[in-house]
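Changelog note: in this version the structure field was regenerated for every chain. One regenerated record is shown below for reference.
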Amino acid sequence: MNEPKNGAPVFVKVADYKEILDVLEMIKSKVEEIRATLGTINTLQNEENAEVERWNNTISDIEKKIVEIDTMMFEPEHGW
């Protein structure tokens, strides 16, 4: 394969040049689609993380209430 030296011009057939431009446009389009998909995935992941955090908070609240009930039921002098 001959490579240009010192910035020498490269000659390409017009048909090949147009094909290269088409391929580059397709690649750009696919990259944009991938970026959009990754953005959607990131949004969904953030929403999922927020939901899991809410669940953890709810479970912690339930655990605290269970401890309070246990204290009232089994150690009435401390809870009543």
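Spot check on this record: The longest helix spans residues 14-74. The mean pLDDT is 89.
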